[in-house]
Every structure is written in structure tokens, then in C-alpha cells.
Specification:
The strands form 3 sheets. The chain has an 8-stranded parallel barrel with strand order 1-2-3-4-7-8-9-10, surrounded by 9 helices. The chain is α/β, with parallel strands linked by helices. The radius of gyration is 18 Å and the shape is globular. The protein has helices at about 25-40, 60-65, 70-75, 90-100, 130-135, 150-160, 175-185, 210-220, 235-245, 270-285, 290-300, and strands spanning about 5-10, 45, 80, 105-110, 115, 145, 165-170, 190-200, 225-230, 250-255, 260, 265. The longest helix is centred in the middle third of the chain and has 15 residues, at about 150-160. The two termini are about 35 Å apart. InterPro entries: Aldolase_TIM, BKACE. Its cofactor is Zn(2+). Keywords: Metal-binding, Transferase, Zinc.
Length: about 300
């Protein structure tokens, strides 16, 4: 079996500062967390930015430029710039950083969906910042927009315009067919990197039968032209990552997806999650992929062709 590509998502745009003191917020913290995750074995680093004063998701390219060059100088991990941004951002806001930095990879959610993180608000009675409970609660009446027009715009602007390849984030069965439609239009070229996402309220549930089924359908749709990976939210993170490795796939961890290392134990760092899943993967007899191997398998343009 081929080596397992580990992606790490250090901060994301979902969890808020109250939830964990270990969540990277500032450019310095994001850079350090990313470098440590790469040293622990992550071949790809999936990145968002946050306002350093408040911890809010922030799309400004100048914030990304405060940590992207530092990551690139310190390690050879593939840098993946999110186009998911933060919930509530416009399409143009979500694309700003990726267009400005022209990364090797960028994430792309391939379907509109209810994206409910409001249940998390009930777990806390006090907050570090006033924006946090309102941010969570607004998702009770929120649709994360990724229309066919949006998808066409992104793959042409960023994919064709910059040579950036995508981490196609698929939260449900229909998203695989949306991706197949994009492929049928001739707008994107293989190999495709498909990230199967489980456990987000509004998307497919974290049930291993769902993982098996989505993997089966992806095989039918994409054949030998794709690499697949799995991420699962919260307590499902490590079990699903382990299952992906056992099935011959790749995996993603990081504090974007789960704040915990184990039951009731907050992860002190992103690197701690990477080390844990690396230990599991290697105990199963697999090897983890190097960044060079990930670049070759995903057909990336190379770190010398980015703008940071």
C-alpha cells in the first residue's frame, strides 16, 4: 500500500478562542503550529487566518503573508490555502488569500449545505470575545454557499489561472457527483484529491457505513484518477483517520477539525495529533508520505511557483 498522506489543519474557521487555549490565533502561533505539525509528519498544511486581536476568521492576504513565508522557509510541507474562509464570508473574500498567494493547493467545498455549529454554544457560559456566541448561533439559519456558478468561478480563477490543485471537500454523497460534473466539463485535470468529511451537522454523519459507501461511489466516479482522504469532526477524528489508513486512504487531523487528543483531553498542539495518528498508522504497518511524495502523487506545480 502506498504511504499515507497526512494533512494537518492547524486553526480553521470554526472553533472559537474560548474553546481551547491551544487554538493558534496569531500569525506567530499559526506559523509555529504548522512547522511543528510538519516536523511531526504532516505532508500538507491546510491553512486559514484569524484576526490576531480577536481570533475571528479573517480573509486578508496580508495576514497569510505573515505566516506563509515562515512556514515555507522552515519546512518543505505542501501549503494549502483554504477557500472556505469563515462562515458568512462572500465568495470573493474567501478567495482573496489564495489568489494573492497562488499556492500549490487550495481547499474547495463542492456543494452548498446547512453548516450547523450552533450546538457548540450551549457548552459554554462565558466567552473571551463577544463575537463568539453570535457567530455560532447564526449558523442555525445559515447556508454555506457553493453553487455551480461558484465552483466554476473558483476552478477557473484559481485552478486554471494559477495552476493550483484542489483539496475537494465533500460533505455528502451529492458533493461527489458535483465534483464529477466539474470533471465532465473539462475544467480540472487529474489527479484529484478528494477529502471525505464526516460529522458536521448538515453533512453526512460519522458512521463507518457512510465512509465505506462514499469511498465506493468515489471509486466508481473517479477510478484511478484520484487520491482520497478522510477527516471527521470532534470525537470521530482519530477513529475515522485510522479507518481511512486501514482502507488504503489518506487522512487529515488538526485543531480545525477536533480540539481533543482523546476523550476529555484537549490537544496541547496540532503536532500532538499528528504524532498520535502517525504512531497508529505506523503500528498498522504503513509508512507516512513525505511532502515530495505527496507533490508527485497529487501532481502539484511545486513550491517554487507560489507567491510567498
Amino acid at each position: 500500500m502506498r504511504p499515507v498522506i497526512i494533512t494537518c489543519a492547524p486553526t480553521g474557521g470554526i472553533h472559537t478562542p474560548t474553546m481551547s487555549e491551544h487554538l493558534p490565533i496569531t500569525p506567530d502561533e499559526i506559523a509555529q503550529a504548522s512547522i511543528e505539525a510538519a516536523e511531526a509528519g504532516a505532508a500538507i498544511i491546510h491553512l486559514h487566518a484569524r484576526n490576531p486581536a480577536t481570533g475571528q476568521p479573517d480573509p486578508r492576504p496580508e495576514l497569510f503573508q505573515q505566516f506563509l513565508p515562515r512556514i515555507a522557509a522552515a519546512c518543505d510541507a505542501v501549503v494549502n490555502v483554504s477557500t472556505g474562509g469563515g462562515l458568512g464570508m462572500t465568495r470573493e473574500e474567501r478567495l482573496r488569500a489564495a489568489v494573492a498567494t497562488s499556492p500549490e493547493m487550495a481547499s474547495l467545498n463542492v456543494g452548498s449545505m446547512n453548516f450547523g455549529i450552533f450546538p457548540m454554544a450551549a457548552k459554554y457560559s462565558s466567552w473571551k470575545y463577544d463575537w463568539e456566541p453570535q457567530f455560532l448561533e447564526m449558523t442555525r439559519d445559515f447556508i454555506f454557499r457553493n453553487t455551480f456558478a461558484d465552483l466554476e468561478y473558483v476552478v477557473k480563477e484559481l485552478g486554471q489561472g494559477h495552476g493550483t490543485k484542489f483539496e475537494f471537500e465533500c460533505y455528502d454523497l451529492g458533493h461527489l457527483y458535483n465534483l464529477a460534473w466539474l470533471i465532465d466539463q473539462g475544467w480540472i485535470e487529474p489527479p484529484f484529491f478528494v477529502q471525505l468529511v464526516f460529522g458536521v451537522l448538515g453533512g453526512v454523519g460519522a458512521d463507518l457505513d457512510n465512509l465505506q459507501h462514499l469511498h465506493t461511489i468515489a471509486d466508481k466516479l473517479f477510478g484511478v484518477d484520484y487520491e482520497w482522504s478522510v477527516l471527521a469532526a470532534g470525537r470521530h477524528q482519530m477513529p475515522f483517520a485510522t479507518s481511512a489508513a486501514m482502507l488504503g486512504g489518506n487522512l487529515r487531523v488538526g485543531l480545525e477539525d477536533s480540539l481533543y487528543l482523546g476523550p476529555g483531553e484537549l490537544a496541547a498542539s496540532n503536532a500532538a495529533q499528528v504524532r498520535k495518528i502517525r504512531g497508529i498508522v505506523e503500528s498498522l504497518g504503513h509508512r507516512i508520505a513525505t511532502p515530495a511524495e505527496a507533490r508527485e502523487r497529487l501532481g502539484l506545480k511545486g513550491a517554487d511557483r507560489v507567491r510567498f
